[in-house]
Amino acid sequence: MKIACFFLCCFIGCFATSCSTTQHTLKQPAVKAQMAKVADWQMRHFKYRKEASPGYLHDYGINAWTNAVLYIGMEKWANLSGDSTCYQWLYNIGRKSKWKLAENFIQIPSYGIYHADELCMGQFYLA
Q1: pLDDT (tens digit, 0 to 9) for every residue of the chain, 127 residues total?
Q2: Where are the domains of the chain?
């Protein structure tokens, strides 16, 4: 009897939630407006570590892989939005990094420039 009651409660719960008519639908213009705010904030507040600190093996510098992920995303946003200020910001990042791959692993011959972390900047340059 307890099992039947359990399944009945589950069925009623599932049915009640599936009949709910209050849904919040996001509209494309609202999403793009919010994305523009995020991109603007990222560009205004962008900072990076210029040298390593204890606990940071290689995630520092303007050409760190963690920053390259941001740059690639920002390029996708610039392409989607047509925002020329975003493209200019990215171009300045390239100039500051001298369009070079990171060399955080240069002292480790088995990694060298072929470590995936180092190649992230190359993906940004190709974007």
Answers
A1: 556 555 555 556 655 555 555 667 888 899 999 999 999 999 999 988 777 666 666 677 888 888 999 999 999 999 999 999 999 999 999 999 999 887 777 777 777 667 787 788 889 999 8
A2: 25-126
Give the per-residue SS3 of 15-66.
HHHHCCCCCCCCCHHHHHHHHHHHHHHHHHHCCCCCCCCCCCCCCCCCCCHH
What single letter denotes the amino acid at residue 11? F
| For helices 84-96 and 28-45, angle between their N-to-C axes, nearest 10 degrees | 30
Residue that the structure tokens 């972390």 belong to = 117
DSSP annotation of 106:
T
